[in-house]
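Hi there,

I know you've been waiting on this one. I reran it after we fixed the sequence typo, so this is the corrected version. Both the input and the resulting structure follow.
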Amino acid sequence: MRKKRVYLTGFMGSGKSTVGPILANVLGWNFFDLDKLIETAVGKSVTDIFSLKGESFFRCKESEILKQSFAEEPFVLALGGGTLTDNGNIEFIKQTGISIYLKSSPEEIFRRLKFKVDRPLLKSENGAPLTEGEAKKKISELLSLREAAYLSADIVYQMNNISVGKTVDDLIKLLHRKFQI
C-alpha cells in the first residue's frame, strides 16, 4: 500500500516549515505544520503555551493532534522539533507514513535561529533570550538528546548549505526511488 503521508522531522530551524509547503506543492499534496495546528486548537502561540501551560501540556497536545485523522490526505506535515521525543509518536509516524529527517549541524541551526525570538526552548527560565554561548550549548545538548530519534526516520537528508530548491528536488527523487511516490 502506498503511504500518502510524509512527515518532516528535525531540530527547530532545520527547514521543515520552509521545505514542507514547497515539497507538498510539487507532490500536489496538502501541507500542514503541527505547531500551527496546535496553536489553532489551543488558541495561543507555542511560546504562550510553553509559558502558561508548560512543555508537558504542549507535548500532550502535540501527540493528540498528530494522531487525529486527517481527511485531507495525502499530505506533508512539518513536525515540531521535539515531536519525536515521544516513542508513541515515533510508532504512529512509522505506521502511517514516511518520515524525513532534515539534518543540520548545531552551527547551521544556530545561524538560522540567532535572530528568532519565538523559540521557547531557547529562552532562560525567566523568559529572557539566551546568550550566544548559552544558545549554542542548548542547541548542541538538545540535538544530542534527540539525534537517535531523528535518525529513526526513513530518509535522512543533510541540509547544511543546500538551497531549498535543490533540497526539494533531491527529496522528490528519494521519495520516488524509495517509495514510488
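Quick highlight: The mean pLDDT is 91.

Best,
R. S.
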